Amino acid sequence: MEGRAPEYLHKFVAETEWYTDIVLSPLVPDSWRAPLPHWAQTWLRNYIGGVLVYFLSGFLWCFYIYYWKRNVYVPKDEIPSKKAMLLQIKVAMKAMPWYSALPTISEYMVENGWTQCYSSIREVGWPMYTVYLVIYLGLCEFGIYWMHRELHDIKPLYKLLHATHHIYNKQNTLSPFAGLAFHPLDGILQAVPHVICLFLVPTHFTTHIILLFCEAVWTANIHDCIHGKLWPVMGAGYHTIHHTTYRHNYGHYTIWADWMFGTLRDPEEESKKGI
Ligand SMILES: [Zn+2]
Ligand SMILES: [Zn+2]
């Protein structure tokens, strides 16, 4: 990898400015944007981008599962009420300005050369890129599992932060909009492992951004109560159990961490037992 010379770091700044242009150019007049410092433009892009991804993925998914494929994936009497969804949207919207601060800070750290990020896959080659990515994802699985589990186990943290997300404890109150309905600090804490990885593992910056984006879509997806049955993916079937027992399936993309630390509950076996 090249050093962390200012010319090298400039590649990151060019990339983040490009993202900012994509999101803000069509929506915010240049004359409003220009006086804002770089970090404020980054935050504004994250905020607007976050709101758009949240609503677009939420509405499309709701339309598909509750309207277009009515009764196929979700029985009619288990469709969440409008009121429940609006409440989730309200909680998520309150938290969004704070969530947006996390990638703003992490980008600042990347642009200033504090992390192990690299700019182009060519610098390390595809084999090492893959190795680093697997380590990154493994650390995230581990980190997010424990962050989530501690948010349950440490009672004051649960009461103060995580309980906000757990008021949705029945199938018919969970919806894709619950995906970002957290206390702001709770949502940030659960995303922090992504940022910690930047310091521990050489990470391709663009891939990191894509992974954060996937995170937002994924979290909507696991709250739709539709069990995907795609081993070893920890989909909504597992996460619905998390919302009803509070003590299982803390994990992230895969069942790996729950399996390893003994908190896994398989939705298939649950339904066999008739629970
Ligand atoms: Zn939880
Ligand atoms: Zn949840």
Automatic annotation (TrEMBL):
| Bilayer topology | Multi-pass membrane protein
Q: What class of enzyme is it?
A: lyase
Q: Name one GO cellular component term.
A: endoplasmic reticulum membrane
Annotated Fatty acid hydroxylase domain residues: 134-263
What GO MF annotations does this protein's record show?
aldehyde oxygenase (deformylating) activity; iron ion binding; oxidoreductase activity
Q: Name one GO biological process term.
A: lipid biosynthetic process
Indicate the principal place this protein occupies in or around the cell: endoplasmic reticulum
| Cellular localization per UniProt | Endoplasmic reticulum membrane
Q: Which domain of life is it from?
A: Eukaryota
Keyword entries, A-Z: Endoplasmic reticulum, Lyase, Membrane, Transmembrane, Transmembrane helix
Segments traversing the membrane: 47-67, 126-147
| Enzyme Commission code | 4.1.99.5
Q: Name one Pfam family in it.
A: FA_hydroxylase
Q: Does the keyword Oxidoreductase apply?
A: no
Q: Which reaction does it catalyse?
A: a long-chain fatty aldehyde + 2 NADPH + O2 + H(+) = a long-chain alkane + formate + 2 NADP(+) + H2O
InterPro entries to which the protein is assigned, alphabetical: Fatty_acid_hydroxylase, Sterol_Desaturase_Related
> What does the sequence similarity comment in the record state about its family?
Belongs to the sterol desaturase family.
Query: Mind telling me what this protein is named?
Result: aldehyde oxygenase (deformylating)
Protein species of origin: Iris pallida
